[in-house]
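In this supplementary section we document a worked example of the pipeline. Step one takes a protein sequence of length 485 as its only input; no multiple sequence alignment statistics are reported here. Step two produces a three-dimensional model, which step three serialises into structure tokens for compact storage. The input and output of this example are shown verbatim.
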Amino acid sequence: MKKIHVLILQAFIKPFMICFFIVMFVLLMLFLFKYIDDLIGKGFEWYVLLELIAYQCAVQLTMALPLSMLLSSIMTFGNLGESYELVAIKAAGYSLRKAMMPLVVLVTLFAGGSFLFSDYILPVVNLKMGSLLWDVRNKKADFLIKAGIFNNTIPGYSIRAKGKSKDGTILYDLMIYDHRSGNAANNVLLAKEGFMHNSADNNYMILKLKDGVRYEESRVKNAKRYDPRQQFTRFRFKETEQKFDMEAFQMKRTDENLFKAHHSMLNLKQLKLYTDSNRVQMDSISRGVFTETKNYISYMAPYYHDSTTRPVKTKPFKDFLHDYVPKDQQRNAISNALGQVQQLNSIFQMKEPEYKAYTDKEIRYNIEFHRKFTLAVSCLLLFAIGAPLGAIIRKGGLGLPVVVAIIFFLIYHIISTMAEKAAKDGSLDPILGMWMAVIVLSPLAAFLTYKSTTDSSLFDIEQYKLKLEAFWKTINGKFNKKLPS
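The serialised model returned by step three reads:
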């Protein structure tokens, strides 16, 4: 048994590692394609991009691990079945369940590790990833001059160049508008040529201008009469420098404490604490609504007790109004009742958005609470589907196992995504929404496990062809007997 256990473990670990890195690479490429516009042309340092990729790899672990578990289990037992090693194990008197026991223990350890990862590490990674991605997406693109187009990315300036050199450092026929004072045309600079470079600390961009002229318009406050010398000034220069502050193009890191209250950045203990605090706020709103509305509501019991303590049914409201309210005051009573109903309606409409916001928070907290457990259970579930499926298919490699694995994973992912969306909308209980995929696919895992232990030929096409031919011969034989000779 030890040799069998070592054989199965060695057959599983290598495909699992290969599948895990392939799936992680594909998911990472999808992430980069999604945010490619936010990453290109902003001059990020290499370590910023490396940090972002590292955080994203940790985040994608929640999807890469179950898919790798499914694919590698199908490949492992497909290879063992194709090479008749499973047949040799059964012929030696060992059941498939006993042979798989160390692999089940290994997958259970993976599932337990994924639970600890989702509870302790993933919230921290989500916090780091969320704050960094926010700063990356909000950073301005690098300063870039296009020929013949005004560039307004530097605050307070509009810059246009008719042409530029191939390396982009020399600009020709420059026009610079300085509108920091609010008027776009009060300060204009023209130059035939400008050499562009950064300062030593990269905080400023310096334009060394040649053969140009600066036009400045200034006005004296409370001037009583027009003075041309104070209104317009022209400077000609052979060479000068214009300095631009590039602080707006530098990436500023946001305080991570601003993101800490998000539901995906909390562990189980914090989720429970936030849920309790959220329910306290909901109860406070409910009590406030009751306090505001109790003066508008009159409760009339459908029964009252007479002197004999026997319940006697009250009269309908129409008869009650006719008997106890004078006729000349009935219209006023109805009008007052309608006014109170409108007051109640306005109170409910005013409090509904606030209460709904706390209700949505509670749903998000419950969803994230159960997500910590579904990751571990999904690893066990997909292994329970993939291992017997590979033993039944008996095909190794990256052909049929990959197709089958993708089909089953898509089924799992579609069910879980649709159920989670329904839970977020409030149309489905969060517990049922997060566990829907496990509930639906667990009978399938049990069925495949039973078929694999009984040496079923569930996916053997030749067996189905033979059964179909036998059925067709039976039908033809019965039909020919009924025909006259």
